[in-house]
Amino acid sequence: MTQAPVLRDSSKVDLRELAGDALALARSSGASEAEVAVDESDGFSATVRLGEVETVEHNRDKSLAVTVFFGQRSGSASTSDFSRTALEDTVQAACSIARYTAEDPCAGLADPDLLAKEFPDLDLYAPWQLELGQAIEMATMCEQMARDEDSRIVNSEGATVSTHSGREVYANSLGFVGDARGSRHTVSCVVLGKQDGNMQRDYWYTTARHAEDLEPAGRIGRLAAQRAVRRLGGRRIATRQSPVIFEAPVATSLLGHLVGALRGASLYRHASFLLDQLDEQVFSPGIRIHEQPRLPRGAGSTAYDNEGVQTRDRDLVSDGILRGYVLDSYSGRKLQTKSTGNAGGVHNLTLESGRMDLDALLREMGSGLLVTELIGHGVNTVTGDYSRGAAGFWVEEGQIQYPVEEITIAGNLKDMYKRIAHVGSDLDARGNLRTGSVLIDGITIAGS
Predict the structure, then answer these.
(1) For residue 5, is it within any domain?
(2) Counting C-beta atoms within 10 Å of the first and last residue's C-beta, which end of the chain has fewer, N or C?
């Protein structure tokens, strides 16, 4: 039996015992295999707007989801009620669904030899001992720093301080039991600037597993204000072909589109522009994109995926060549291969940084567009066609000249990936997709 170490928890409900009960009920109902995920989380958030408390939200959530297999027929059901009656009803509902579904030769639990056997402490759980009053004071200070930063800041959508922590147990009838806890804390601020009748909105935030890793709340407020006022006086530019830098926070979307094209469901449905591209050059030489699922305190860190498959460091792209896909057990079988440990998604997917910071990238670009905001969802995962509204700044001789708005950037992701010239050292590591700013040699900009 493969089993993670017991984690102490003050919850009144023993989640491991609850998961075991669900599996026992599934077996007694005739299921050949079963899996269950049980989770509990709690936390609160406080938002202050224009110096007054606007909202205080407390949450305490819990859920149990069970999937049963009768041979190669499957059914799933879930509940937020942990009572014995609700548990029995939920398992019976899953069994009833399974009995009426068609057989699927790819259905079933993960391959036993892929299940995690090591459960390192990744330092993901650190509840913030924060009182509500302290959170309100912090949010108030954050917003006030933003409003004091520049006289052109005339309104606010508020500053928010939030803290959440939880625990999840995943177990299946192969004997696997995984028990994980995590926490997430955030400080954010959104403000509006005004000048000569023109208004612009922007924001900034910090988020971390441990409160000690958060940026100071005052700095978040100041950065939100600075980002808002620098956009004032935006103008359109003429349609052209130009180099473009995606600022790090928006460059993560380029990784998101890549993951969407590499997901098993997109591949076996023939709905990906990267179909049959394994071991082909899909990025410019030198580009490396890799998963780091066991980074201490990482936003996407985990020892195992949503099916219990052990995660591992691996390259999705090395030297610009596609090395792997993003598969769970089902899609792996559909593609006649195995899970890559990505049930539930990728884990700390990182576009390897170069040595130049954003200022150096601007100098390297010379003249072109710095994109700081993307609007809309005009991306076709089947063809790779890319067209999104954008805002940012026009750059000449390596220096920002003026803000730009009401433009569209367009191209094809297959071409854009191969035109990546540099990746900045300004790594945005706040989320599960991690990258610095990205300089692409040429993209069509549609303007006036």
Answers:
(1) no
(2) N
